[in-house]
Design goal:
Layout (H helix, E strand, L loop, with lengths): L1 E18 L5 E20 L4 E5 L13 H7 L7 E6 L10 H16 L6 H8 L3 H6 L3 E5 L3 E4 L8 E6 L6 H7 L13 H7 L5 H7 L2 H10 L5 E4 L6 E4 L3 H14 L4 E6 L2
Parallel strand pairs: 3-4
Antiparallel strand pairs: 1-2, 2-4, 2-5, 5-6, 7-9, 7-10, 8-9
Helix pairs in contact: 1-2
Length: about 270
C-alpha cells in the first residue's frame, strides 16, 4: 500500500500584480506547507477507483470528476489504483486542498512508477497550485503561480495554527473582486523577511464577500502571533508562533471562544 499526506498549502505572501489578457492574474506568491492535511492511500487494482471519507468528504460533489481522479488519469500508474482519500481539510478554503490531494497522487506515482519528464505541465493543467503542491516545499511562485523557484526555508519548523470559520469561498469571484491596484512586488530576502514584509492582496475582496474572515484574523491577532494572515483566496487564515506552547494556548483559547470554527495545528515543513 502507498500512503501520502496531502500537505495543507498556505500563502505566506500573495501579491496580485495585474489582470492578464487571458483572464488570469499575474501573481507573486510565497508558497509554504504545513506538515498535516488530507491523507491518501492506494493499492493496485483492475481499474481506478476513488473512495472518500472524513469530515469534509461531503464537500466533494463528484468523486469521479474529482481532481484526484483527474491526476490519476493524467499519469501512467499501471492498470489501476483504488485510492482512499480522507478529507480532513475544508473545501474551497485557500489551503489548496484539492491541489494538495493531486500533488499527493503525483508523489505516490513517483514512488511506484516514476514521473514523466513533462510532469510539471501535466500538473499545471490540473490547476495553478498543483505543481507547487507536488513539491510541497517552500517556493516562490510567479506567473499564475506555476513558475516555481525553491527557496531555503528559515521558518521551517515554525508552529502554525490554521483556522477556518466553516464558510466556503470560491477562488474565481475573489479574484474578480480584486480592485486592480498594483501595490508593488513581493519583497526579496529570506522566507521570514518576505512573510513579515509581504501581504495578501486578496484579503480585502475576500473579507468583502465573507466579513467573518476579519473576525478570524482579529481573533488570531489577539493571541500574539508572530504573523497572522489569510491564505490564498480564503477563507482560511493562519497564524505563526514562536513556540509550540504559544500556538497550543491560542488553539485552546479559540476552541473555547469559537467552538464552531475549524482548526488544525502543525508546523511549517
Amino acid at each position: 500500500m502507498l500512503t501520502e499526506t496531502a500537505y495543507a498549502k498556505i500563502n505566506l505572501a500573495l501579491h496580485v500584480r495585474r489582470r492578464r489578457e487571458d483572464g488570469y492574474h499575474e501573481l507573486e506568491t510565497l508558497f509554504a506547507f504545513v506538515d498535516d492535511g488530507d491523507r491518501l492511500s492506494a493499492v493496485p487494482t483492475s481499474q481506478d477507483a476513488l473512495h472518500t471519507f472524513g469530515d469534509f468528504a461531503s464537500g466533494i460533489e463528484d468523486p469521479f470528476g474529482n481532481i484526484v481522479a483527474k491526476a490519476l488519469a493524467s499519469l501512467p500508474h499501471g492498470r489501476g489504483w483504488s485510492v482512499e482519500l480522507q478529507k480532513r481539510l475544508p473545501v474551497a478554503a485557500g489551503l489548496g486542498g484539492g491541489s494538495a490531494d493531486a500533488g499527493a497522487v503525483f508523489r505516490m506515482v513517483e514512488q511506484s512508477h516514476g514521473l514523466p519528464d513533462d510532469w510539471r505541465d501535466r500538473a499545471a493543467r490540473l490547476g495553478a497550485d498543483v505543481p507547487a503542491c507536488v513539491l510541497s516545499r517552500t517556493c516562490l511562485g510567479t506567473g499564475t503561480g506555476t513558475e516555481l523557484q525553491e527557496i531555503d526555508n528559515d521558518l521551517a519548523g515554525t508552529p502554525v495554527l490554521l483556522v477556518n470559520p466553516r464558510v466556503a469561498l470560491s477562488t474565481g469571484p475573489v479574484f474578480q473582486a480584486w480592485d486592480g491596484v498594483d501595490r508593488g512586488g513581493m519583497p526579496t530576502g529570506s522566507v521570514r523577511t518576505i512573510a513579515m514584509a509581504g501581504r495578501n492582496d486578496l484579503e480585502a475582496p475576500a473579507i468583502g464577500s465573507r466579513p467573518i474572515i476579519a473576525d478570524v484574523l482579529n481573533a488570531l491577532q489577539s493571541h500574539d502571533p508572530m504573523l497572522a494572515r489569510m491564505s490564498g483566496s480564503g477563507a482560511t487564515c493562519f497564524a505563526l508562533y514562536d513556540s509550540v506552547e504559544q500556538r497550543d494556548a491560542a488553539a485552546q483559547a479559540l476552541a473555547v471562544e469559537r467552538p464552531e470554527w475549524w482548526q488544525m495545528t502543525g508546523a511549517l515543513r
